[in-house]
Amino acid sequence: MHGVKSIDLLAPLYRAIHQRNALKADAIDDVVLGCVTQMGEQGTNIARL
């Protein structure tokens, strides 16, 4: 998975959360994400990518 960008992992997650919970996008204030090994491209704030 070293060639997979973080945004390519997060986009399907956001879509699935929206579909499974039938929430309006403006009803979500915060999404908390983290990274265990912050190095290379993951050294940035993964949630802001």
Automatic annotation (TrEMBL):
An example molecular function term from Gene Ontology annotations: acyltransferase activity
The name this protein goes by in its record: Thiolase N-terminal domain-containing protein
Origin species: marine metagenome
Taxonomic classification: unclassified sequences, metagenomes, ecological metagenomes
